[in-house]
Specification:
It is a single chain. The protein has a single domain (46-177), classed as tt1808, chain A, CATH 3.90.1570. The mean pLDDT is 87. The radius of gyration is 16 Å and the shape is globular. The protein is built from five helices and eleven strands. 28% of the residues lie in helices and 24% in strands. The chain has 184 residues and is α+β, with helices and mostly antiparallel strands.
């Protein structure tokens, strides 16, 4: 086991997206993200419940005619920092493309989905919501890990540069999965 001093001595003074990508490649046991302010977050991999929720949403899009190039899990995106949404949906013919690093730009990105994880509640519910809105991502969904897996669907209000919650409010994931996806 390495000490904090040993790890810290190897860290760059300013973490770039390329550094972040290198850390992710070197360590499959953690997920690395970088806020637009340069704050590094290190999280454990998804637990089974989290992975199942993402898998269900992914399969729902595919079963409803979305192409695998349009629905991508764990794709790093450049939003001024490096974020890794649990699931992204891209416009037909505009799959993720590298931007200024190995992270994808947001051109063609229609939806980012985050399943709230223990320990990252504030990041998933507030910080990413703000960063994704500033990056111009048209839709942002937050899936809570409560009894119904409530899905909070947000649409970008371009004039205010922030998200508005869907007027129908949060919906249980089961309701969402029984309807047809509409993220265009």
């Amino acid at each position: 086991m390495m000490s904090a001093q040993a790890v810290g001595a190897q860290m760059p003074t300013h973490v770039t997206l390329d550094d972040l990508a290198s850390m992710a490649v070197a360590d499959e046991n953690h997920r690395y993200e970088l806020s637009s302010e340069g704050v590094l977050s290190v999280m454990p991999p998804a637990d089974p419940e989290h992975a199942l929720l993402v898998s269900r949403i992914f399969a729902w899009f595919l079963m409803n005619g979305y192409d695998p190039d349009e629905v991508v899990t764990d794709c790093g995106i450049d939003v001024g920092g490096g974020r890794v949404p649990d699931l992204t949906v891209w416009a037909k013919g505009l799959p993720p493309q590298r931007a200024r690093s190995s992270y994808a730009g947001t051109a063609g990105l229609l939806l980012a989905v985050e399943v709230v994880s223990s320990g990252s509640e504030v990041v998933d519910r507030i910080i990413k919501k703000t960063e994704y809105a500033k990056a111009g991502i048209p839709r942002y969904w937050v899936v809570e890990r409560d009894g119904t897996a409530a899905v909070y669907r947000h649409t970008l209000n371009k004039a205010a540069n922030e998200y508005d919650l869907d007027p129908s409010g949060p919906r249980p994931l089961a309701w969402l999965l029984s309807s047809a996806p509409d993220v265009s």
